[in-house]
Amino acid sequence: MSFEIPFGPQHPALEEPIxxxxxxxxxxxxxxxxxxxxxxxxxxxxxxSRNYQQLVYLSERICGxxxxxxxxxxxxxxxELLDLEVPERAKFIRTIIAEMERIQNHYLWLGLxxxxxxxxTLFMYAWRDRERIIEMLDMISGKRVNYGMSTIGGVxxxxxxxxxxxxxxxxxxxxxRAEYYTKVCTKDPSILKRTxxxxxLRPREARALCAxxxxxxxxxxxxxxxxxxxxxxxxxxxxxxxxxxGCDVASRMYVRIDEIKESIRIIRYALKNMPEGPxxxxxxxxxxxxxxxxxxxxxRGENLHFLKSNGSIKPERWKIRPPTLxxxxxxxxxxxxxxxxxxxxxxxxIDPCIACAERIALVDVKTKKREVWDGKDLWRYANEWYxxxxxx
Amino acid sequence: xxxxxIWALIEIFVFPGFFFLFFLAFFTEWLDRKIVAKFQNRYGxxxxxxxxxxxxxxxxxxxxxxxxxxxxMADKIPFSLMPILLLTxxxxxxxxxxxxxxxxxxxxEGDLIVIMFIMSLIALLVFISGWAxxxxxxxxxxxxxxxxxxxxxxxxxxxxxGPAISAGSLSVSTIVDWQIRGVWxxxxxxxxxxxxxxxxxxxxxxxxxxxxxxxxxxxSGWIVxxxxxxxxxxxxxxxxxxxxxxxxxxxxxLGGPYGPWYISPITYLAKFLLCVLMLxxxxxAFARYRIDHLLAGAWKYLTPLVLLQICLIKVLGV
Lengths: 392, 318
Description:
The complex is a heterodimer of chains A (392) and B (318). Chain A is built from 14 helices and ten strands. Chain A is an alpha+beta fold. Chain A folds into two domains: 2-347, Cytochrome-c3 Hydrogenase, chain B (Orthogonal Bundle); 360-390. In chain A, the strands form four sheets. In chain A, strands 1-2-3 form a three-stranded antiparallel beta sheet, covered by helices on one side. In chain A, strands 6-7-8 form a three-stranded antiparallel beta sheet. In chain A, strand 7 and strand 8 (315-321) form a beta hairpin. Chain B folds into two domains: 25-65, no CATH class; 73-316, no CATH class. Chain B has helices spanning 2-13, 18-39, 55-64, 76-91, 111-132, 136-167, 172-181, 185-188, 190-204, 215-218, 228-253, 265-284, 291-316. Chains A and B meet through strand 1, helix 4, helix 5 and helix 7 of A and helix 6, helix 10 and helix 13 of B.
């Protein structure tokens, strides 16, 4: 007996709307039909009516989790059109932020994957640790999700010495946690049962279907833009391109956990060897006629931006190819032959965007006094409130 | 004479009858949620009552007041009948469990068989209720529930028969009585105890074996179409099943209400809480298995293990 099951657009396993029509034969997937377009926002069309400076902010809103990767990619494209040389310090800061974003994304991914296989405890643990790196990003940029750090010609905020100390501290914590997760994910029998040999993507298929990022690297293909075509400061930092040969979900998990450790090493090196100097150069508003492409290794894989300029202050065409789109074909291949129970685990590569309400403005009704709270105040207030009320 | 009748009425309706059992069920749900939250670094229920202890009751009342939707394609009679039957069948066996002294409210030779039969019926009802919803997710969930029954049913019943063999009786009350004169069954049948715990996790559809309702895969499976009053009853029935599972472990393997010092419901409750703690702990420590993992595991390991246990009982004569 075979019947069709709609997986999404609304499904607890999916944080963003996408639809997979799964044809099931005795709990096994026979064919997959993906359907996209539930959250089409027309960003590329909007771009034609905005100027280049405004588009930095729009590019960050493409994705909540890889926001910096998109902003960086866009900035690099414009810089190439302008033939602008970015200061060394800005390059290092860009590298640090990009790697911090990778760490937070990979922790998020680990938690979500654990949730998909019904391991809520690991989900809670991974997300608690993710909070540490988000705090650091918040400290540097003032925001938890869309950092607003990259701009055309450099970055907008500097990393000071006092920040460096705090970052080192949380990196230490995150490193021990990453070690712990390696231990958990390689030893725990129930995790191994759900991930080893599930969602196989052979190296040949991965190459033919143009898989990118951790998905490709888990199939043994050492494809990483940071190493292949270094941008920002990656050319000056030596790091290992993590690959595993398992071709399954377990390998994708190990690639990501190892990448967390590698990212921590990169950030440490960059913090130590950051050159002094300005953090940005002034960029002209008008962009000369031409076309440019820039590639960035986003946490989920290769991110590609293409810009065509007609010499005015607005671009003529802006094309974005995010990594998820590149991995969709491989995903459909992986799903065939998979048990229905394993579908969420295999799909789990699709990450959600979380808009966190971080700041609130308090207005005292009687005195009309305004007071702005940031995350720390909110945190302190919440903890105190619970402690007072429930004696926790 | 009259006072005896009043006493009997109190036993049935207040303690250890309906009233007590309802509150025990809600309390168990709260405790389970709180313990799992603790393991997962969360707070768990907080708002209703001290430390959120009334949260399950609030949830129950809230669900009762919600809109009750019957899908137009559903098989109407079984669909509306199943939640009621599930709840009734989940409460009934609890009266065979001795909580105060060695005698349960209802106690006769063979009540253990009745409990087993009712537990199988519950699994069947789960299958029918999923099937009657005619939802694609419920259908898959109910098929999984049926398959799961084939996996855990036989080792579970064999593990429950172990204490009956050593006590030489099929009555839960007699088994409890036998344990106080001899030793607790957990010491002489540790394998049976372990197998029963695992199988009860599967029967309760708790995390490593929450396959029929796997939320991230098939959107809570066989329950997905139930809403309002029906969902409230199903949730309550699941709480009662949890109480029944813990009580069975206490009665068959931990010596029921008999403590090292004196017999009392308090001893019973202490052991009961220990069992809830154990089951909740197991729930927090695993990822969900797949249905084929469970079937293979149950037939390859659990059934031979429990057969070995029964052989050991016979050979060693304990």
